[in-house]
Amino acid sequence: MWKQIFWILWIGAVTWEVFLHSLEWRHLIKMKLNPNTVFDGYVQKSTVNDKNVDYAIEHLRISLGETLTNYLISAIIVAYDLPKLVEGLTAQISLPIFRAGAFGIAFGLLFWVSSFPWAWAKVFYVESKYKFNKTTKSIFIKDQAIVLGFIVLLSFLGFACFAVIFESRIWPLYLIFVFALFEIVAMILVPSVVIPLFFKLNPLADEELIFKINELLRKLGINKIKVFVANASKRTLHSNAFVTGLGSNKKIVLFDTLVSSLAADEVIAVLLHELGHWKLSHALKRIGLVLAIQAVLVYFAFVMSNVGFMYDFQIQNPQQFAIYAFLLLNMAVTLFFQPCLLSFIRRQEIKADLFAARHAGSSLMINALSKISTDNMAWLPRHFLYKAWYCTHPPIPERLRFLKTFTNI
Questions:
Q1: How do 241-244 and 251-255 pair as beta strands?
Q2: Does residue 240 contact residue 259 with C-beta atoms inside 8 Å?
Q3: What is the b/e burial string over 165-180, where b = at least 16 CB atoms within 10 angstroms of the residue's CB?
Q4: pLDDT at residue 35 is higher than 70
Q5: Per-residue pLDDT at 48
Q6: Going by CATH, does the domain composed of 201-278 fall within 2.30.30.40?
Q7: Structural domain boundaries in the chain
Q8: For 142-175, how does the pLDDT look when each residue is reduced to its tens digit (9 = 90+)?
Q9: 273 annotated binding-site participant
């Protein structure tokens, strides 16, 4: 029964994701042929040209190719019982915990290898074609080596840990605890360990901007956050900013491309957006939602382990169960949980925009978003279904509409 459920979900997920990509492709083509049908008056059509649409289409092709590759790998894993093959290759490892870790590394490598060509194409075909890429091949290989290192480490620790806790009758509770611990540790380590591996973080050099930021932080009563500029221009000409970390380890990172392209007051507006995430506790709320979803998935996994799932897939150990359960539940997440989570995240982005508008004025935030979107070729509205399943940020026209509405309140 469970194998039939897997293939039904597989066909449904593949069909749905292809359908969503085709909807977005038709939406982009429609925009290219007749911009009047998609713009709502808040975006000047002169800022959007065929090049922007072509850029979005190129990324859509990469996204679809990567998505279908992942589904193909999943189908091969199940159809050819790859977990059993990998188990045979690792059978010589005497300690179960190391055998489980090696098993996890094998599948982590499999998915990394399948994603590598698409990452290469995205950087050296799409981004280079549209003059955004500054990444050299040596930097790309270095970055991928770092990613691979994290995949190996996390795959080993994850599967080894699961092999241990699965022996307990209350393993779902232990697993939920491990997920919560991972989220917290990741939020602590990302600012100080992970980000510096990719970017050099420097203090701001603009004295006028430093003075304005210090005044802003004083007015907001914030004294436990640090602002850094990342040398992102070594890799890309895209502009970005983000907040990361927890507590005293929290950082706001501004790309040097953003600082150089915006006026001081506009940088302040972007900074306020990131401070809005912090003041409104968005990271903690997001972690809470993610953990709630994970708890539901762990419950489903627990039910599966007791109602014939292991028998249908002829599972003999925890690591095999982890792979098959992950593949099935991942499709359930894609079909049912993903739009809920992303809708929550998009609402947080709007709230952060309005926080910035409240403290800096809507016009500055509108100007900053407009400049960033023009530089990044990111003005395009999205098909509403594609947005629901894939977009972490509302499209720029939607964000501007909220900001202009806020101005009129």
A1: antiparallel
A2: no
A3: bbeeeebbebbbebbb
A4: no
A5: 56
A6: no
A7: 1-200+279-408, 201-278
A8: 999 999 999 999 999 999 999 999 999 999 999 9
A9: yes
β-bridge partners, 251: 226, 244
Tens digit of pLDDT for each residue in 171-214? Answer: 999 999 999 999 989 988 888 899 999 999 998 888 888 888 88
Q: Mean pLDDT across the stretch 224-253? A: 86
Annotated active-site residue 353? The verdict is yes
- The catalytically annotated residue of 24, 87, 256, 353 is 353
Tokens 């799932």 belong to which residue?
Answer: 309
> Which of 87, 127, 266, 274 is flagged as catalytic?
274
277 marked as binding residue: yes
Stated as kind and residue range, the H or E segment containing 30 is helix 2-33
- Asked if 274 is an active-site residue, the reply is yes
Quote the pLDDT of residue 194: 92
The helix, strand and coil proportions of the chain, stated in percent and rounded to the nearest 5, come to: 75, 5, 20
CB-neighbour burial class of residue 83 (10 A; exposed 0-12, middle 13-18, buried 19+)? buried
Phi, psi at residue 323, to the nearest 5°? -65, -50
Tokens representing residue 101 in the block: 């870790």
d(C-alpha 53, C-alpha 381), whole Å: 10
111: exposed, middle or buried (C-beta count within 10 Å: 0-12, 13-18, 19+)?
middle
d(CA 345, CA 290): 11
Q: What is the average pLDDT across 20-26? A: 97
